[in-house]
Amino acid sequence: MGVFCPRSGRGVGGGGLSCSPNPTLVDNGLPPCASDGEGSGQGPSQQRETGFDVDKTWGGAFRCNLTAEELAQWLIKNFTTVAATAISAGFFHFRAPEGIREGAQVFPWVTTVIPVPAFGGTMPVVPQSVTIETQVTVRNVNSTGFGFVTNPVKHFFEGTVEFRATSAGKPGWVNFTVTAQANFSNSLWEILGALIRRNEDAAWSHLVQRVAEKCAEPR
Fold first, then answer.
1. Which residues of the chain register pLDDT less than 50?
2. DSSP letter at 20?
3. Options 3.90.1150.10, 3.30.530.20, 3.30.450.20, 3.60.140.10; CATH of 54-216
4. CA terminus-to-terminus distance, the chain
């Protein structure tokens, strides 16, 4: 298909908390985890067992100097810049020649290292840097954000990802989430699933981090 409370289990990523319990953006750059009585956010995330290879949400509730609608519009306007990031042994970035508008094509590029059999055989396996262009279509755009649907012929996954900013029900707080629901588009990508999941985890974690940093900027 920054900072987040990672989901654990079969899907993308896992591990311990990557957010701060402090309700302000602290020196380590982590936005706060939502806790009881603070905003309407979520606790630590986890992979939902729904039959998808990936069914996971990154993000939560944190303080923001923008309204949810302002934050969503900022992300729509700046998505390709904000989402570009380094990943495991490589880079992840986007081309959006038509911008983020309904029906537009967006092209995520991934440069990473994958194991490749040497000399055309099955062994030994050697690491090789590859660049892969994938393709998604913007399936919706509104005041809360936007969503993509993948082209499974040109993507690791067959599924959707949604980027949403909504009110957290408390002045000065917003909920921002990235939600992916997808299956691997073929058996090759399923074999490389651990690497793909790691890279996706890094990409959307980074995006949430960038959104949190934008929220912390003075108006």
1. 2-44
2. B
3. 3.30.530.20
4. 32
